[in-house]
Automatic annotation (TrEMBL):
Gene for this chain: coaE
The reaction(s) this protein catalyses: 3'-dephospho-CoA + ATP = ADP + CoA + H(+)
Record-linked PANTHER family: BIFUNCTIONAL COENZYME A SYNTHASE-RELATED, DEPHOSPHO-COA KINASE-RELATED
Annotated binding of ATP, by residue: 11-16
Pathway: Cofactor biosynthesis; coenzyme A biosynthesis; CoA from (R)-pantothenate: step 5/5
Enzyme class: transferase
Function per UniProt: Catalyzes the phosphorylation of the 3'-hydroxyl group of dephosphocoenzyme A to form coenzyme A.
UniProt record similarity statement: Belongs to the CoaE family.
Organism whose genome encodes this protein: Mesorhizobium shangrilense
Protein name: Dephospho-CoA kinase
Compartment(s) of residence: Cytoplasm
Lineage, uppermost ranks: Bacteria, Pseudomonadati, Pseudomonadota, Alphaproteobacteria, Hyphomicrobiales
Entry keywords, A to Z: ATP-binding, Coenzyme A biosynthesis, Cytoplasm, Kinase, Nucleotide-binding, Transferase
Length: 201
């Protein structure tokens, strides 16, 4: 089974592309979704112990947690040391299930794949990209997003140009959904050796 790492900077269309892989029958593990689930489950007592007063009604309150970790590298590292191993364990269980099911490919959707040293966990990397002005427009349309927040997020991410150089495959979502979907199908076809499959859809 080929483990495909899916990544891309904020606003590049990674979540939409992940759905396209899922629609094409490829199992996808979503790191962000896993964190949301952990923040309502396994991670709650651990986060509360490390950051008292950040959980309410049995869930981690991201707003309260942000007061601890925003702009504090040491506190953020402490949080990551709790969350990353839990996400990793969930991803490993997902890969074991996918391998047992006999599928040719499984996708790990990892937003910070290069930033967190995740390259060694996957066989191939797909980087989702889009022109900078499209990325900016998408992100600034999100509730509560500001130019300052966007600049701060981008400063922590490996630049898009560098990600594209490190990628095995690049999907440009700036060209529209149909073009992105065609790229997804072409990648699946190349990895499975099913050239006919890509033509038939």
């Amino acid at each position: 089974m080929i483990i495909l790492g899916l990544t891309g900077s904020i606003g590049m269309g990674k979540s939409t592309t992940a759905k396209m892989f899922a629609e094409a029958g490829v199992p996808v593990h979503d790191s962000d979704e896993t964190v949301h689930r952990l923040y309502a489950g396994k991670a709650v007592p651990l986060v509360e112990a490390a950051f008292p007063g950040t959980t309410t009604s049995g869930s981690v309150d991201r707003t309260l947690l942000a007061r601890y970790v925003l702009g504090d590298a040491a506190e953020l590292k402490k949080l990551e040391s709790i969350v990353h191993p839990l996400v990793r364990a969930e991803a490993d269980a997902f890969l074991a299930r996918s391998a047992a099911a006999g599928g040719p490919i499984a996708v790990l959707d990892i937003p910070l794949l290069f930033e967190t040293g995740g390259r060694d966990r996957v066989d191939k990397v797909v980087v989702v990209t889009a022109p900078a002005e499209i990325q900016r427009a998408r992100v600034l349309a999100r509730p509560g997003m500001t130019e300052e927040k966007l600049a701060s997020i981008l400063a922590k991410q490996v630049p898009d140009a560098d990600k594209r150089k490190l990628a095995d495959f690049v999907i440009d979502t700036g060209k529209g959904l149909d073009a992105a979907r065609a790229s997804v199908k072409a990648i699946i076809a190349e990895l499975t050796g099913d050239k006919a499959g890509s033509a038939s859809g």
